[in-house]
Amino acid sequence: MVRLYTDDLSIGYGDRLIVKELSISIPDKKITTIIGANGCGKSTLLKTMTRIISQQSGAVLLDGENIAKQNTKDLASKMAILPQTPESVSGLTVGELVSYGRFPYQKGLGRLTKEDYDVIEWALDVTGTTEFKYRSVDALSGGQRQRVWIAMALAQETEIIFLDEPTTYLDLAHQLEVLNLLQKLNEEQERTIIMVLHDLNQAARFADYIIALKDGEIVKAGNCEDVMTAEVLEKVFAIDAHIGIDPRTNKPMCVTYDLLKGAEK
Q1: ABC transporter domain spans which residues (predicted)?
Q2: Distance CA 157, CA 185 (A)
Q3: Which of 61, 175, 244, 255 is the S-S candidate for 167 at Cβ 3.0 to 4.6 Å?
Q4: What distance in Å separates the CA atoms of residue 106 and residue 156, rounded to the nearest whole number?
Q5: 33-53 pLDDT tens trace
Q6: End-to-end CA distance of the chain
Q7: CATH of the domain at 230
Q8: Would you tell me how many other CB atoms lie within 10 Å of the CB of residue 186?
């Protein structure tokens, strides 16, 4: 089943076209990762699919409706995004930050209801951040802060969550912590997860569907076995990759690689 897709989407900055007539479908209730070299259009695509920036042509459709024509609060109740480098107002407590996720549901004076507080407590609990509720966000470690931002996204109660490089600046343990949480949300609550990842083996390990981009165009899209091949990685990253099998997941993994001689991205 597909609820979210793009139709001939072109995105650019000024005269420079970043994404070119891109048509993709996002599998519902699955984890999709987008991979590609720096500057290929990954983050630009995510920002356009969540209406942070506008496209030059084409459309992003959710449940058959163009998101450009949807009410902002209505759209925010359907999809949430965690940017690459989220910034909060200095001095906010964790509880205050997570409460911002209730914005789409607030009416009148914007006061939180009992239902809002219940959802906030649930989001803190499921992300393991309840103990930080009254602590300043500024005082948290990178991994803790990332989990708090995910809690805020969960407080929006959206069925679709976008994340732009959610493991950036985190050590290996915290990277795994965040990705395990996202996998749990997908499996137990059927959240549709779309994220940009730089680590190919993490993408293969956690994704049901991978989209490989180069210069704003799809090189290959499909399951891990379809995309994590030496041929695809050569086209996308200009590398000579040796692909093996992860002994714990039985999914393909990039064991090692070399730069292709004379290759240009």
Answers
A1: 4-240
A2: 12
A3: 175
A4: 11
A5: 999 999 899 999 999 999 999
A6: 34
A7: 3.40.50.300
A8: 18
